[in-house]
Amino acid sequence: MKYTYLTLVFLIIISGCKPSEKLVEKKEDKQDLINFLFQDYIGEKPSASFIVIKDGKIKDCQSFGYADLENKVLANRETNYRLASVTKQFTAMGILTLINQGKLDYNTKLTEVIPEFPEYGKKITIKNLMSHRSGLQPYNKLYPNDAEKQLVDKEVLNLLIKQDSLLFPANTKYRYSNSGYAVLAMIIERVSGKTFQDFMAEEIFEKLGMTNSTVYSKDVQIKNRAYGYKFNDSIYENRDQSTWSAILGDGGIYSSVSDYAKWDKSLYNETLVKSDLINDAFSNWDENGKTDGKGYGFGWQIDIKNGKKYLLHGGSTSGFLNTTLRIPSEKITVVIYTNTSSLGGLRRKALSLASYFSDGKIPFPAYVLLEKDIDENGIENITAKFNQLKSDNNKYDIVEEDLRALGFSFFNKESEKALKIFELIKLEFPNYYGGHFGLGQYYAYKTEGNNEKAVQYYKKAVELLPSKDQRLINYSKKMIEKLSE
Predict the structure, then answer these.
(1) Which domains does the chain have, with CATH numbers?
(2) pLDDT above 70: percentage of residues in the chain
(3) In 3-state terms, what secondary structure has residue 308?
(4) SS3 string of 382-394?
(5) Are 104 and 186 in contact (CB under 8 A)?
(6) d(Cα 301, Cα 308) in Å, to the nearest integer?
(7) pTM for the full model?
(8) What average pLDDT does the segment 71-75 reach?
């Protein structure tokens, strides 16, 4: 069913995670910021729920919009969203639980658990699967996107068993692998003798009191369920399921922000597994073993900023987009779940909330403050605002890629604002490709008779683009060729 997209003049302010539709005045800076961050979810729209945990206590928890547009069900702290790839931290914990019980170890080979796997499975370890270093082929390349029948984990395994090679030899490269986590769910089943659903319920959810959480099944009714939506032109369409939505190990858990607080607490103690296993999950793994640097652990992406470890993971699937952020040194966690895949920027929202509640110990994303200033004061003050933020780089986090994203957020509807932002990027970061690429796009698509200018900027972008961004390099070269004809 389709729903008209309404621009409402009222704000829905949620206190204590309970939905409300009262007309309100802006009362404080915190709520003003939160309303700005979640303005796209306020009104008769799909929902967003967030929670901020500091020192083991819930500092804030709010919900906006509708978990179920068809039945006009507002979201709240108990709303169950499909976690998509946020599921991976739970699947990894399932494997760590079996290791903790002595039933597996990091070096257990794939063929020791699944002997029918091809010969190359002898080279793939449990550790390789958890850290995305297995080399397994992506299941979405082995199964039609438009197939009527949904794929499940066992069928992913069967597809992989039919392949005669890996993308690369195991443990020689990192490549994010949904296939690997579907296989991990199958390993959990074979080793434990339980279904993945039962194992997660008994070994994790019940032990932590996560009474709202479940693993997806067509046959099981999910309580407090959020349904997924996609924005299409001027309406929201129900897009709750896809070909891949029934695969469990890489994305099939439903949970709430309320339950995440219980999960987060367990990561500071040994309720589920020993602390050294938790620390392993929070460490990067490369071909030589565990390291302290950036990278990927077991179900967690790892970043290092100003000497602090950031543990992150997003999740994206049909109708849902989520993000989790933990900064253990500050004992702060932010989680945002949404039931629309049409909006982005969740990581910046999470970083903004983490900064606000960190007593100044976490720098605030400059992108958000620039966007808010443009929204309130227009684009003309952007240089002055940027200089203000730049003058205190300990307080504000200026990321070039975020600025490029900010420019393109205005590109289609307010291209003059995009132009100003791209010009600022080019001036402030002359050795970064983003400003030049943005200007190339602007002069190619938003003006007439400026092909020469566009080509000039595309050429500079190609010169500055890192080799890993081959897609943008190829695109820029094609535009140069097209505009030079």
Answers:
(1) 81-224+241-304 (3.40.710.10), 367-485 (1.25.40.10)
(2) 94
(3) strand
(4) HHHHHHHHHCCCC
(5) no
(6) 14
(7) 0.89
(8) 96
